[in-house]
Each structure stands twice: as structure tokens, then as C-alpha cells.
Please model this.
Amino acid sequence: MENQLIYSGKAKDIYSTEDEHVIKSVYKDQATMLNGVRKETIEGKAVLNNQISSLIFEKLNAAGIKTHFIKQVSDTEQLNKKVDIIPLEVVLRNRAAGSFAKRFGLAEGQVFDTPIMEFYYKKDELDDPFINDEHIAFLEIATAEEIAYIKAETRRINELLKGWFEAVDLTLVDFKLEFGKDATGEIILADEFSPDNCRLWDADGNHMDKDVFRRDLGNLTDVYAVVLEKLQSL
Ligand code: TMP
Model:
């Protein structure tokens, strides 16, 4: 059935469409952290994230990355291929920051010669625990071959994204991706790419991402609007 709410997430609601293989993602004016423990309405965030994510996914599609993105259909809505999400948060780090810096007692900013990849198991009731390849195999979340594909694809996406952000004087510090399987069983990039799930620093070291909300550094939408404006100049 068309226009039925399939899933309500923290940042997006997902609706069915007339095509069983297509869903509509509706971005929300909501910011959460600590697995939803802190939740705030931030007017204008939905429009910005939908625009930023649409722009990035269009570029990824054009660069030959297989993604769920079909098209943006309104300020806050986009059409996506329906996938079964693989319950992994794939984190790629170009520099030490956030939980990595904290865990290993490092200052933020150290550059990694080889970007470091991490997996977290997407399971709210467990608070998304850290998970490695052997855990993934044991839990039958993905096969070794699928994990190898996800890793290679994530590194390829990182190289593309790093270049685009560098071109607009932003440093891509780290980010989180999610992958899913489409109706044919193919693994494709899903979810979103926005300052909600990456870290971006400007030339002066200012945080241009959700750390503005997490760390109470100022007005989130002002910062996201600058990121969008920069990306639109690409
Ligand atoms: P972390 O340093 O808190 O582990 O975050 C690493 C990157 O992953 C950062 O860009 C934020 C993003 N991320 C999400 O998008 N969702 C999450 O639930 C977490 C923990 C991190």
C-alpha cells in the first residue's frame, strides 16, 4: 500500500510508495545523541540534510558507486531504492576524533596514514556495540566476502568524499555509512550522508557538523547551511 509509514527513525521517517521496490525518506527536524537520550527539535535541519545528502549521493551515483538514491522529490523528501539494511554502522576515520580519541587518550586531529575502519552493531537495546569481523561472522550479519566488499567500497567512497570536501576547504575527519541489500541481493550504499554522520572541520579548525549540537558550540543550522553552500559551489 502507498504512503504507509514503514519505519520511524531518529532523523527520518520511511514511507511506502506505489512501487514496492521504492521508499520515500522524509527527513525530520530532529537531532538526537546518546542513542536518543538527548533529543531536540531543530527547525530547518531536515531541509538542509535532505539537500546535502541528495547532493552527495548524486555525486556518488555519478562516480559509479552503487547507492539507494533515486531522486530528491521535495525540500524534505527523497526517493530511495528499498533495501534490507545490514545492521552495521561502518565508521571510517581519517583522523583521530570523537570516541577514538577518547578511547585511546589521544588529542583530536592526528592524521592516520591509512584510514581506520570500525564496525558497530546496529542494535539500539545494546547501544550499538563495537564489533569485529569475527563477531560479524559469528552473528551471521554478513559473509566474509560481503564484509570485504563493504570495506573496499567504504575506502573508495572515502577517497571521493575527501576530494570533494578538500575542494571546498573542509577536512573530512570521519564518517558513518550504512549498507543494504536491494531486491536482487546486491549490496548498495543506503541511509544518508550529512553533517549528522560525519565530522568536518573548516580551515580554522571550526566544527562544521553535529559536534556543534553534541558539544553545544553554536547554531547547528547556520553551520549546516555553510556546508551546503560550499558543496553547491563544487
Ligand atoms: P564516534 O567518534 O562518536 O565513534 O563517531 C565516528 C563518526 O561516526 C562520526 O562522524 C559520527 C558518526 N556516528 C554516527 O553517524 N552515528 C552514531 O551512532 C555514532 C556513534 C557515530
